[in-house]
Structure formats: C-alpha cells, structure tokens
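User: Show me an example of a complex going from sequences to structure tokens.

Assistant: Sure. Here are the input components:
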Amino acid sequence: MPDPIEDLRTHLAPIEDLKAAATVLRWDQETYMPDGGAEARAQQLSTLQSTAHERFVAEETGTLLDRAADAVGDAAPLDTDAALVRVTRRDYERAVRVPSSLVAELSKAKSQAQQAWTQARQHDDFSRFAPHLERLVDLSVEKAEAIGYADAPYDALLTAYEPGRTTAEVASLFGTLRDDLVPLVDAIGDALPIDDTILRGTYPQSDQRAFGRSVIADFGYDFDRGRQDVSAHPFTMSFAPNDVRLTTRYDEDNVASALFSTIHEAGHGLYEQGIDPSLARTPLGDGTALSTHESQARLWENHIGRSRPFWRHYLPALRDRFPSALGDAALEPFYRAINRVTPSLIRVEADEVTYHLHVMLRFELGRGLIDGTLSVNDLPERWNEAMDTYLGVVPETDANGVLQDVHWSQGAFGYFPTYTLGTLTAAQLMEAIQDDLPSLSEQVANGRFDPLLDWLRSHVHRHGRILTAPDLLERATGAELSADPWLRYAENKFGALYDLA
Amino acid sequence: MPDPIEDLRTHLAPIEDLKAAATVLRWDQETYMPDGGAEARAQQLSTLQSTAHERFVAEETGTLLDRAADAVGDAAPLDTDAALVRVTRRDYERAVRVPSSLVAELSKAKSQAQQAWTQARQHDDFSRFAPHLERLVDLSVEKAEAIGYADAPYDALLTAYEPGRTTAEVASLFGTLRDDLVPLVDAIGDALPIDDTILRGTYPQSDQRAFGRSVIADFGYDFDRGRQDVSAHPFTMSFAPNDVRLTTRYDEDNVASALFSTIHEAGHGLYEQGIDPSLARTPLGDGTALSTHESQARLWENHIGRSRPFWRHYLPALRDRFPSALGDAALEPFYRAINRVTPSLIRVEADEVTYHLHVMLRFELGRGLIDGTLSVNDLPERWNEAMDTYLGVVPETDANGVLQDVHWSQGAFGYFPTYTLGTLTAAQLMEAIQDDLPSLSEQVANGRFDPLLDWLRSHVHRHGRILTAPDLLERATGAELSADPWLRYAENKFGALYDLA
C-alpha cells in the first residue's frame, strides 16, 4: 500500500544527510582543518550544498509534497506529518523561486565580498569593500523580488531566519525597546560605574575548560551526544540530535569570557539535543527560528548564568578552582562585576543591555540598504552617527565601526534582528517559566536545573520546526512577542545594580 | 569548442568531492565523534557513498569516457589525460559490473558481520561469527563472478587493491619468501634473544607527541597541509593533497610504539602529500595501490626509522626528551631493542620479520575460503595449525587467533597480501635508492631526508594513480617485484643482529 508520507520522508532523508555532512565539514573547517585544506574544503562544501539543493528543488519533491498533502488533510498543529508537509512546502516554495543562476551569482559574490571585507577591515579601508557590498545588496534585492513579499523586500530576507515575522513587526518592537533602552543606558552612564577588576587575573585554560564543562553538564548538556572544542569564534553545530557540538575560546586573563560563551553555546546545544529524535533526518529536525535559538542561549547565559542564585551555588567551586585569583571573592562584588554595563564600540564584546543598541543600528542600516533609502557610500557616516545617538561612542576607524562584522559580507541581510528578538523571547519565556516554577531561584541556588530543562524541553526544544517561532511563543506564554518582559527584567535588574531611581 | 577531457573532469570532480567528504566524516568518526553520533554518521556515510556511486555508474560517465578516449588516442604512459581515461575506465567497468542489489546486500551483510565479529571476539565464540563469514564469502564470490577474472575468483577481489597483479603471482612471491623466512625465524628463535627492556619506562604522552612530530617534520611531512590526532587504531586519511591527516595512539610505558606508528603513518602521509596537485579532484589523485602505499610506510618505518644511522642522529634528542628513562641509553643496545624479533600471536604487534608469516597465513586461508577449498567451520583449526607451522606458537583462544582481525568481517578479501607486497616493494625501491643516493646513510645520520624524499616524490609519489603498482616499480627499479631484495635486507640485518651463520 503506498504511503505518501513515508515516500516523502524517504526522499528527504538523504538530503538531510548531505546537509549534515556539510555541517561536519564546516565544523572541521573551524576547529581542526590545517590551513592547506581551505581550497579543497570550499569545493567539497560547494558540491555538497549544490547536490542537496538540486535534489530538494527537483520536481519530484513537489509531486511527493502534493501527494503527502492529500494524505494528511487538516491535521492538528502539532501533528508531525502535517508539519512535515507544511514546513517542507514552505522551504520548497522558497527554494524553487530563486533561479539557480542567481544562487550561483550570490554564492560567487559572497565569496568575493568576504575576501574584500577581510582586506578592507585589515587596512581600515571601507572603499575596498563598498563595491562588493553594493553588489550583494543588488543581488539580495533581486532574490527578495524572486521570493516575493507582502510589504517590503526586507521581509523576504528576514523570513529566511524568522518564518512568520515581518519587518514592520520588528520595527515596532524595536521602537518600543529603543524608547526605554536609550534612557536606561543614559541613566546607567550617569551612575557610579561598577568595578569588574575582580574578573581579571590568571586563569589557566585547562581549569576554565573543566569548570565550564562541569557547569553545562549540570545544566543537562550531554557530552555523550556532543563535545566542546576551541575555535576563533564560538559556535554550536548539530549533525543530528545525538551529535551536537559546541566551541568556545579562552582568555586566560579573564574568567568570565569563556564561561559565559560556554553557557551561551550550551543553551543552543541543549535546544538541539532536546529536539524529538523522531524528527531527525527531516526538515523538522532543527531549531525553528534563529530568534528561538538565541532565546535559549540568552536564557541560560543571562537569566541563569548572570543571576545571583546561580553564583550562590557556583562561586565556591569557582574560588576553589582558582584560589590565587579568586580566593577571597565575595558574592556581591562578583555578581556586580559580571553584570557591568558600559557602552562600547564592538557588538560581540557588548554587555546584555547595550548589545541591543548595536543590533538596532544594524537592523536600521541594513533595512535602509535593502529598501534603497541608504546608499553604501553613506554607510560609514550613518554608522558613526547612529553609534553616537544610541551609545554615545564613535569609532575612530571603520575597522572598529562599520567593518567589524562579517555578516553583511556573507549577504546575511535580515539576520541581525534575530539576536534581539531572541533576547525578548527569552525574557517572555522566563516570565512564563517563573509562573510555572515558583521555586526556580531556589532550585538554581541548589544547582538543580532539571525542572527548568524539562520545561524548556516540553515547551520549546522537542517541537523542532513543527511550530513557527510566533506560534511556539504564543503556545508557551499565551501572548505575542513583546518588548515588555525584557524591559521589566532589565529595569529591575540594572535599576537595582546601578541604584537608579 | 568541446573539450571531451575537460567534460570528463567536470563530471568526475564532484564525485571526488563526495568521496572526500565521506573521508572527512570517517576521520571524525575515528577521532572526535561522540558515541551518540554513531547511528546518524552511518546514515550520512551511506548517503554520501551511494550518491557518489550512482553518479559514477551513470551512463553519462560511460559516454564521456568514450568521447575522451577518442580525444586522447595513443598517448605516452605518463600522459595525464590518457591515464585519466584509462584509470577511470578501469574503475567504471568494475563498478558497473556489480549490480546495485549486490552492493546493497554486501553492505548490509558487512554491517551485520562486523557486529557479530565484535560479539564473537568479546565472547571468544567463533560460532557467532561463522554464519556471517559464510555469507560474506558467498557474496564476495558472487561479486568476483560479476567482475570477472582470468584464473581464480580471488583475482577479482585482489585487483580492487592491486590493479595489475594476480593471485598466482602473489602465491609465487610468497612461496619464495616462505622458503627463506621460516628457516630465518627458526634460526633467530635458536639464537640469544635480544633484551628490549630499555624501551620500557615512563614516557609522558605530550613528550612522545612532540618528539614524533619533530621527526616527521624533519622527514618533510607538512603540518600546514596535515595534522596528527589520536585514535584507537593509527591510520592516514587524505581529503586532498593539501589536507592529509595522520593518527597514532600512545603507550606511556613504551617509547617505541607510538614513535614507529607515527613514522609508519607519516610514510603514508608523505605519499599523499606528494601527489601532483594537478591530479586532485580526479580518480588519479590517490596512491596507486595498497602495496605501494604500504611500501612508503614500511620504507620510512623500517629502512629508515629502525636503522643505525637514524638513531645515530636521533638518540641524543630522545635521551634529552626522556632523561630519567633513557638518560644513559647507548646506541647499540637501543638499536638492538627496536629490532627485536620474536614470534607472537597478534599480527599488529609483530616485528618486521615475523609479520609476513601472519600475512601469508591470512592470504592462504582467505584464498581457500574464496576458492572453496576451505570451509568456514574448519577455519579456526586451520588457523592454529598454520600458526604452529609458521611461527611455532598457537593461540589458546580464537579471540587471540582467527578472530583477531576486523578485515574479513568487512568483506576485505584480497587485502591482507598487500601488506607483504608493500614490504617487498619497499626493499626493492630501497636498493634502487641506494644505487642513486650512495650517501644516503650519511645523510640520514645527519638528519637530512630531502634527497630521499625528492627521490620518492619523483619516482613514486607524484604519479598518483597514473601508473599501476607493477608499472611504477618497473620504471623505478628496472625490475618486476621480487622477494629477493627484502630477503637480502632481512638476512643481512637480522643475521648480524642475531649473529647467525
């Protein structure tokens, strides 16, 4: 008897294998690959990606989807088979609309732009990057036109990362956020600064590694189904729910850097390890949106890892691990130090408050490039103006300004806002969690994380891509995404820390 | 203007990429993959292999080969384009002859046999493995019939590893070898044993690693185009001529184990790193036969690494690295210890002399299974009889006897003889090298390896698969493969070491 769902799964599974294989190759590229391997690796990745893409955009996928759609009919939102058809259809429609000639042009332009960006940043010379960025903007607009959108071309790019969200919605959320955030940052700037010299000292990498591993193992990150390595930029990659890998980097002069990056990546990793194993080898077996992914990272990093109860439990162990640097560290100064807020030039070094001003700036400028209201040539000046307005600091060089991020050179327009959407999502989930788990603070102060992890597994992780980010949040919290929970969290926490009125 | 060679290359390059990607996944599986990743990895590898296979056996390959053959005509043996057509045709004919149903059956049977072998070895119970081995023998014979052969089905299996060689030729070489080797081993057994306790002591892994790396870097192994990691069984894998990776394992109680394994694998690695880069992403871009590969490993391991001139140069550095264990080690006892010969039960622990008796035994028994003169049920008894005849030792358990190697459970009939063919090849190359480089010993004693590496690069490495192993050897040494050079080497070296008449 024919089983159209099974036929669809059988068709999609090897495509997922090819994508997973590409992820293994990228993981290796960032961790262990010798320099000499770069050229061959680029070719291998290109072949894997194009092989997976060709199989996916084949007519057969459409035919199998049509048959499977008839078989599932109107099913409940959490029905896996219906979700498989729904999500695969969404991916398929998007993929077939972009002509393969444009895919190839974009791929070539990105590769050239990344090389130009590296050079431009190294020589602090935006003009080397400008023509490549212009080309990427043009091709991205072309791609957006091919995909189609209701309101603005930026919508079509945003939905690659955030299915179900619009540019207007993001702009509105960011507007609310900005109205409260800029005054909060100003007030913190006028308050007595926090001293964080306690974090500086000598912290051998092997001890940092052991401590970080013990913390995330306590959270529930499973080292039998993952590992942690070192890379230039921390990341998480999943090859399967049972093989989810983290990386970090170590600063032996600062105890906080690798630890919070480890906790952050473990948040991503716990999400991937928690996806229902039955979704493996299907398009449902990933995190549903970048914002949902980032919410898991930020929830563990900031709401747990930068909280007082957490350090009530872990500071003694940290002191034991680093007796000469931290032997006499007390809870309150340590807690204050890891929550210091100070405007700075570089996004990836920003604290959890000012970070969102960096993101907003990038969202506004990126959107302007795509909708044609901002020209590439005006970008550096507009960047510096916005830095001054939002953060009160202005970079002296473009290398520390508009050239600091790799993302635009990768053509990733629509990507930056997901960081802040993730933070808002984390705070909104956290309010729901605190309602459901009134003893959470006490549990965290006792090093017990299983109630929290169970909640996240059940409301977020296990669903994979069955629900879109908006649907998932609505089911988990009963409300649409709002900036208010995070603003309440930030105003409470940092109001107290900085003794604000 | 159509270019049939270029069309063929364009068709083959992504197939090579897929195979290289599979190699990256296997490397990861043996080095860093967490246990949980095994199931998904098997699926990913299966998809990569079947995708590469389907593309290769497609009719298009045959059409492109026909057109390319017309274009190259009768070219010189070293002409790359002609070799591309010749070697790809050979691979293609072999691949299309095996029905995909048989490929799938073999793949399934191997997977089941490997699990059964693991269990059988663990419980020292050959009967658990026997039915699986029978099935693999039957399927291998079926495969041999599909491929075709001139003389014996074993020929068809052997040529997977050794194009251009026959079972009869191997049997004849091994006959010559056995006639001299068994008396040599007997004579050594009657001589005063060599004391190798000097090799035992405490040798921290990090120091062993540093020393091994320095030695193979001196040889010319390029760490910018490779790396060395740890795995349960040492191996070398190439993803591209510029990304060739070695592994080893460390025994902290023995200074010789990891060092000679490192040198051995570096021999393989130098071969792969030395292949003409223009052959990358073609079927020519690998070592030409397993015996040629093994010859490079054995040449560096035994002819160089276990020689007096080598230790004249390196023993002082080794003493400095391990002052407490080796501070007063003198050259002669050390040289004797690393060349100790003693019959033993386990092939992978055997010395360079008795090793070949282990190989012969496997060749003879494996060939018997395939030509039907030996039944699986009689195998353990025949194994033990042969051990007694050849080595004078008999295993007390099948786990230490017929079940010790994984290879037959992988259906790798025809594989074992390549080890000894490689050793014979190494000795024959070495006589030619000594003719061309009369100062080789002096160079080695001064830590200078570039003349040797240049010779190997020029006569062996750079050709990739352009020449078959017999053609390569004939061009490099002016003679067909013979057992005599190795017998001369062994009788000289071990005659002196054991003071034989």
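The lines above are the inputs; the final block is the predicted structure for all two components together. Residues 1-97 of chain B form one domain.
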